[in-house]
Amino acid sequence: MSFNIRKFGLSPAFGLRLAVALGLGVSAGLMAPPALAEDTARFNTCMKDNESVLLQQRDLVLLCLGEHSSTIDRTAMEARGQYQARDNGVVFLLEMGNTTEDMLVTSYAVIVKHEKAEQAQVFNLTPVSILPGRAVTVPLGPLNFVPEGDDLTNGKFEFGVDQVRGLKVVLK
C-alpha cells in the first residue's frame, strides 16, 4: 500500500506521524522525517505548509511543536511556587522564568507534592510561550490534594520542573 502525503500538501514528518497514528507504519512507503529542526522559522514553515481545514489550529500547533521543538536543560528555568487560596479555591501558583538567551519555551511539566498528599501531581503545560529572559505566573489546578489552614502556608511541599522543550528564536 502506498500513501502519497505530498499529494495532500503535508510534510514527510507530519505524514510519518499520521501514518503511525493510523497504523500504517513506515512500510507504507513514507520517507523518513528530516533531521530535527529546532527553530521558530522551521516551526512557522510547518504551520504554513500543513494548514488544512481538516486540522484545528491548536492540533496543528501541537503537531508542529512535536516535530520542531527540542529539549531545553531544565536548569535554564527559574521556578518558584506556593499554594494560594483564591475566591474559586486553592491553586498552586507557579512563577516560571526562562533564563536562556535564545530559546522560546513551548512546553514543560511541573510536579507538585505536599508532604500530606499521598502522591505527586503532574501538570503538563503545552503549548506555552515564554520568551528568553521573561517569566510568567501560572495558577495550577485543580489540585488532587488541597491543603488547608497551616498546611496552606507552611511550605511543606516539593515541586520541580521537568520535560522542558522549546524552539530557538530565529528572526527574519
Question: Can you give a write-up of this model?
Answer:
22% of the residues lie in helices and 33% in strands. It is α+β, with helices and mostly antiparallel strands and 172 residues long. The chain folds into two domains: 64 residues, no CATH class; 95 residues, Immunoglobulin-like (Sandwich), CATH 2.60.40. The strands form two sheets. Strands 1-7-4-5 form a four-stranded antiparallel beta sheet. A three-stranded antiparallel beta sheet has the order 2-3-6, with no helix packed on it. It is elongated, with a radius of gyration of 20 Å. The termini are far apart. 22% of the residues are buried. The N terminus is likely disordered.
Feature tags:
alpha+beta, 2 domains, 4-stranded antiparallel β-sheet, 3-stranded antiparallel β-sheet, 4 helices
Number of domains: 2
| Strand neighbour order, sheet with most strands | 1-7-4-5
Indicate the proportion of strand residues.
25-35%
CATH T-level topology of the largest domain: Immunoglobulin-like
The ordered string of helix (H) and strand (E) elements is: HHHEEEEEEHE
> How much helix is in the residues?
10-25%
Number of helices: 4
How many beta-strand elements? Answer: 7
Could you say what the CATH architecture of the largest domain is?
Sandwich
Query: Which structural class matches the secondary elements?
Result: alpha+beta
Rounded to the nearest angstrom, the distance between the terminal CA atoms is 41 Å
Residue-averaged pLDDT: 82
Main beta-sheet strand count, sense and barrel state: 4 strands, antiparallel
Shape assignment: elongated
